[in-house]
Amino acid sequence: MKAEVLGKFKELFGAQGDIRCYFAPGRVNLIGEHTDYNGGHVFPCALTIGTYAVARKREDRVLRFYSMNFEQLGVITSSLDDLVPDKAADWTNYPKGVMWAFEQRGLKLDAGLDILLFGNIPNGSGLSSSASVEVVTGVILRDMFGFEELTNIDLALIGQKSENEFNGVNCGIMDQFAIAMGKKDYAIFLDTSDLSYTYAPIKLENARIVIASSNKKRGLGDSKYNERRAECEKALEELQTVTDIRSLGELDEKTFEKVKDAIRDDVRRKRAKHAVYENQRTIRAVDALKANDIRKFGELMNASHVSLRDDYEVTGKELDTLVEAAWEVPGVIGSRMTGAGFGGCTVSIVENDSVDRFIEEVGRKYKDTIGYAADFYVIDVGEGAGVL
Length: 388
Ligand code: GLA
Description:
This protein is an alpha+beta fold. It contains eleven helices and 13 strands. Strands 5-4-6-3-1-13 form a six-stranded mixed beta sheet, with helices on both faces.
């Protein structure tokens, strides 16, 4: 892949100068959904698919961008003096947002860049193609401008800031963190209240992780993502009238049940319930995995989906069809939606011998019910972002 992106870069922008290659993965979250902006835990891992980037500094302040995924858009030109969100700038709002966030941190960019990207994460699939672009941009800027003091966690935070403040999506830290900090064959158990984390090995001897993409496109901006976040914030405020908590992640189920009537609206109470229970489920799931109890882990994944479907209401017909079909296949250890929801992907743990049957049966039921096909990816857990 490196040779291909490099070749295309040289063809478009010329072969001269100091040209460098980078990669940032996509991510899949195994459990802990919609907990990261509620001070809870998440358990994502990096994928081996992601965003390849080639970059070179310029002598002026011009920015030239090209994506091999959007060839019809051609080269999109901008400038370091024009780091403002603009619909017409299309996908380049993601790298530009990161450049803006660097400058906001006082990290001055003193030269323009030519940047070419190629991503093999399906766009809008809920595997964090946008966070992958953000983090790879951070890696480029750190390397090209010599900001060695920035850690990968800094790059994750910068990516999140750009998404929140430049691209208008109030996302949590999970995606950028998983992409920046991923480790081959490990998932990251991250406490989003203080960014403490540990790596847990994903050694599924007899099983594989299978992602099913619903092919229902979703953009976080036009989804109900920000609305869910606001509902949780309001529920927290109501709970704070009777308890001394800073986030929903500080409550266990028992305490929540005692104080939940302070939330004056049924819908908000369900949203908060999901955030609290999902966080506790995530903690338990990681304990189960550490104890090699993969069955228990799978049951908790299934319970996570039910809660996202009934209490958080972010699944929808496509994801429910995929998950419910998966639950019927013998050899499926657990299956749930992953990411923001409202479309995107499911993640399932499937015994090796059942993978073909899983793809065949879930694929068929999905097509019969929804009318178009799903795509399946048997994935490996990869490394976080870096120089290639
Ligand atoms: C999106 C956001 C994340 C997280 C998930 C839901 O992927 O970017 O921060 O909130 O949704 O768990």
